[in-house]
Design a protein that fits this description.
single chain; alpha+beta; 5-stranded antiparallel β-sheet; flat
């Protein structure tokens, strides 16, 4: 999506409605700084207020995401185009998240094992050795929690039996046996258990 084009369109519709940035911000219960960021193309309106914004500017959500008023003839094509862009952006975002999962996972392993290694070779009292070992457990545990959370929300798992792709619950992820990003889980569609692979696209 062209954020600069969308920002100019918001500014144009706001002026056509006879509103200042401050007045529009007050109607949406946000700051005029947020409106300024939209209009300069730095950010997009939050999904929670998008419908309200469109109602104030007398446009559709599709018009907003296109950065122009879409004619009836082109409405279906433009809507399909926007949906494809959203899907591609999600896939790209999921790829970045899964890369972050590796970084967090490696860092958590380092945090866990370095204190154990240090404690094993330092000539110190036993209680200090135990304390050093445990000092790595809490941050490592938090790190591992986030890796599972990232793996849950990024992309989908594909059932080997029926091909259904879905996002499992965090609880199902925790309980599942796994080898890398392949987990043994029950498919919510066919109710069968299988080793399911992580995939980025739902197509």
């Amino acid at each position: 999506m062209d954020q600069v084009k969308i920002g100019r369109f918001i500014a144009e519709r706001r002026k056509n409605a006879g509103l200042t940035q401050m007045q529009l911000a007050e109607k949406l219960s946000i700051t005029d700084r947020a409106v300024s960021k939209w209009e300069t193309g730095r950010t997009l309106p939050d999904a929670a207020i998008m419908l309200e914004l469109c109602a104030i500017l007398s446009i559709s959500v599709n018009d907003l995401l296109c950065g122009e008023v879409v004619s009836v003839d082109n409405y279906g094509k433009e809507l399909e185009k926007r949906l494809l862009e959203v899907v591609k952006e999600k896939e790209q975002s999921d790829k970045h998240l899964l890369m972050l999962e590796w970084v967090v996972g490696i860092f958590s392993c380092i945090v866990l094992f370095v204190p154990i290694f240090i404690a094993a070779f330092l000539p110190i009292e036993e209680w200090k050795r135990v304390l050093i070992c445990f000092s790595g457990f809490l941050p490592a545990f938090v790190g591992f929690f986030f890796t599972v959370r990232i793996e849950q929300v990024a992309g989908y798992y594909e059932c080997r039996h029926c091909g259904h792709k879905y996002v499992p619950t965090y609880r199902a992820m925790q309980r599942a046996m796994h080898a890398g990003r392949t987990r043994y889980m029950k498919c919510p569609h066919c109710q069968k258990r299988s080793w399911q692979k992580k995939v980025i696209s739902k197509e």
